[in-house]
Amino acid sequence: MKVIKFGGSSLASSQQLQKVLAIVEADQKRKYVIVSAPGKRFDGDTKVTDLLIQYARQTIHHQDTQAVTAAIIDRYAEIGHGFNVPEAQLTPIFETIRNLPKQSYADNTYLMAAFKAHGERLNAQLVAAVFQQSGLNARYLDPKDAGMVVTDVPDDAQIIKSSYDQLAKWANSEQILVIPGFFAYNRNGQICTFSRGGSDITGAIIARGVHAERYENFTDVDAIYAVNPSLVAKPAAISEMTFTEMRELSYAGFSVFHDEALIPAIEDNITVNVKNTNHPEAPGTLIQSTREPNPHYPVTGIASSSSFCSLYLRKYLLNKEVGLGRKILTILENHHISYEHMPSGIDDLTIIFDEHQLTPELEKTLVAEISTAINPDEIYFTHDYSILMLVGENMRNRVGIMSRAATALANDNIKLIMVNQGASEISIMFGVHDNDADQAVIALYKEFFD
Amino acid sequence: MKVIKFGGSSLASSQQLQKVLAIVEADQKRKYVIVSAPGKRFDGDTKVTDLLIQYARQTIHHQDTQAVTAAIIDRYAEIGHGFNVPEAQLTPIFETIRNLPKQSYADNTYLMAAFKAHGERLNAQLVAAVFQQSGLNARYLDPKDAGMVVTDVPDDAQIIKSSYDQLAKWANSEQILVIPGFFAYNRNGQICTFSRGGSDITGAIIARGVHAERYENFTDVDAIYAVNPSLVAKPAAISEMTFTEMRELSYAGFSVFHDEALIPAIEDNITVNVKNTNHPEAPGTLIQSTREPNPHYPVTGIASSSSFCSLYLRKYLLNKEVGLGRKILTILENHHISYEHMPSGIDDLTIIFDEHQLTPELEKTLVAEISTAINPDEIYFTHDYSILMLVGENMRNRVGIMSRAATALANDNIKLIMVNQGASEISIMFGVHDNDADQAVIALYKEFFD
């Protein structure tokens, strides 16, 4: 059995859904179909999820919702009519959209979660109807009926592990089960959504739950590329990569596949295959626990992200002070902030953060609290900070990677603010100024792939 | 005024002391003379301090101390007789040596501290007598009379800051004051010694206390070299370096000048001049707060040390876990262990320690406690770990240093286990296997100095 997940662009129109239908029909093992909400049909189009957010906001502010309701209904109608789905099956979907404001919600965060989740929920119902209409033995399966229970965080829920026992009961399904991605229900039966990349997470959870042999993740690119295609024309496609490589790359900005969505797949050692709905014959990218070594390409991928900032701290005799690091980390923990890296010199310490965790207010508070706790000679935040990551299983035990990388960057006159190699054997991390980041990625790509 | 400190080899014999005398006479500003205990006169000789340790041990174990007492007395006698110091001045010194066991000590650690300290104490008395005999206006000044009060740790005392107010009273001395290095007294009047390099520390404390214009530190090398002379023949001498450079280098194995001894000098911004007793006309090495940039030599020095070990730790999703680092550091702090560096990957963390802090027993305890606290997937200590440090103020804002260094190492087929650049702008740290360390230093020296 395979779990197969389609992203929003694969489900944006009846034309796209034709391709999805063909893909599902092409392999009998594709029994679990996870669907996103309809995405953009063309540049400048609005995703159904964004329409639903608008709808939720207008509802909260008691504004007129007629236009947005119509726009949402139109999207589902176009798809349904494209497959001649009987009106009797479409009407309940439209009614549900219209009635969303009439349901009761604990508060506005639950309202927002429920409105957003209906993009996936109704699309899964529609896709199930389309499949039936096209002669497939398919049915809609709601996350509630599937047994998916999540933590009570409306916009960032986590699966509760006991759900897997419930999901296991759906293993070896004869029918094609069409399941909405992105959301499930808390113990009180309220809708809570996953975070970014939420439908990918659902697919991985279902795959783990039913012990799928493969989790196919259909999107709109032929493969995961070794580098951001907006920086390098026609970059090398990654045919095979390990879970760890994917995690290290997505950490530093690879957005194709959110690393949280890998966790359930890793836990059950399920191979993930990223494929293209528009080009399903392409082999795509396999993500699995191990892969064949390729001595010609020590580097698998190069990522960069500017979403980091750093706190620089200088204190004379810093390295002699027992407890100094712990004091700083306790302050961070009190504010529920995790740090990424903490390179230290003799008298200096840099702490690198995911910028999204911080606000100017919070930065001020941290500087004040750390100053009180350890009385540094100098302390300040820097935001002009990009992290580049060179990742590859084949870098293990190889001599000379740092030499090649640092030389490529030096030849392009790129200043290294930070270099961190040491824990993981399969990655090297470089910190550069934001302005240098793109050029640095290109330089590294040329060195290791051209 | 200058504070001038002589190491043990400069005071090992009457012949050596002649040089010391000439150096003190050569500059009227040299009013504060800090002396070590007589050191080795030749390869295979025994330092007086080591004889005193033997003496202390024999006393503690109620063994016969006649031979060792005679050997110690001989050393002072040779120097005294070499300068025709009257027996009336020598006899009290010899008597003090013989009577050491008769004094009362709080316990054996205080006994050991007092025995060891007398190497310096009696030598300072002797040197003062020699200076007087040679016509200098000189006197012995005991740390107690100078006003130096230290914390109550018999073998690792720290100066108590209020001592500086007492020492200030000795500023602008007309007389040459001969002061023993290495020890002072706690508030109860008991002798406590400094740690390694203790006489250097005394010199720096006196220099700060009397606001000396310079602290001259006489030893047996012409200068501090850019690299360990046992690895590279005739290495480049460092004519000028900053306090920070010295600290970074001594951290990673430069033993010429212990970095703790720099602290008082830095606090009062006193230039330190390392010079050679056997070659006083050589300019030596100046250590000061700033220095002239030299664009031809971005690197000032290269150090290496094998006295590090590392704890490797792997846990899936490690970087997502708030509080994990703090938990580990709290455990270290509970055992009074400071860490050096903590490079981290996505799922991995390496903590680098000064090996001297650890025992096999303690390592087991740490592994057990950390395992309980954070349940890692993998955790182990590695001792095959040397740290190399490339240090230079001129590395600041320079592009290409990492490229040159990493390429030099790669060309010699040296595997980098760790690279840490990020906090300090004036150093790069490399972790290599112990076996590769010497070759790595040589490769880096060739790259940056040849």
Automatic annotation (TrEMBL), chains A, B:
Residues 390-450 form the ACT domain. The keyword Nucleotide-binding applies. CDD domains: AAK_AKiii-YclM-BS, ACT_AKiii-YclM-BS_1, ACT_AKiii-YclM-BS_2. Pfam families: AA_kinase (PF00696), ACT_9 (PF22468). ATP binds at residues 219-220, 225. It catalyses: L-aspartate + ATP = 4-phospho-L-aspartate + ADP. One of its GO terms (molecular function) is ATP binding. Keywords: Amino-acid biosynthesis, ATP-binding, Diaminopimelate biosynthesis, Kinase, Lysine biosynthesis, Nucleotide-binding, Transferase. One of its GO terms (cellular component) is cytosol. InterPro entries: AceGlu_kinase-like_sf (IPR036393), ACT-like_dom_sf (IPR045865), ACT_Aspartokinase (IPR054352), ACT_dom (IPR002912), AKIII_YclM_N (IPR035804), Asp/Glu/Uridylate_kinase (IPR001048), Asp_kin_monofn (IPR005260), Asp_kinase (IPR001341). Signal peptide: none annotated. Pathway: Amino-acid biosynthesis; L-threonine biosynthesis; L-threonine from L-aspartate: step 1/5; Amino-acid biosynthesis; L-methionine biosynthesis via de novo pathway; L-homoserine from L-aspartate: step 1/3; Amino-acid biosynthesis; L-lysine biosynthesis via DAP pathway; (S)-tetrahydrodipicolinate from L-aspartate: step 1/4. SUPFAM superfamilies: ACT-like, Carbamate kinase-like. Its EC number is 2.7.2.4. One of its GO terms (biological process) is threonine biosynthetic process. The keyword Transcription regulation does not apply. NCBIfam families: asp_kinases (TIGR00657), PRK09034.1 (NF006540). Belongs to the aspartokinase family. Catalyzes the phosphorylation of the beta-carboxyl group of aspartic acid with ATP to yield 4-phospho-L-aspartate, which is involved in the branched biosynthetic pathway leading to the biosynthesis of amino acids threonine, isoleucine and methionine. PANTHER family: ASPARTATE KINASE, ASPARTOKINASE 3. This is Aspartokinase. The gene is thrA2.
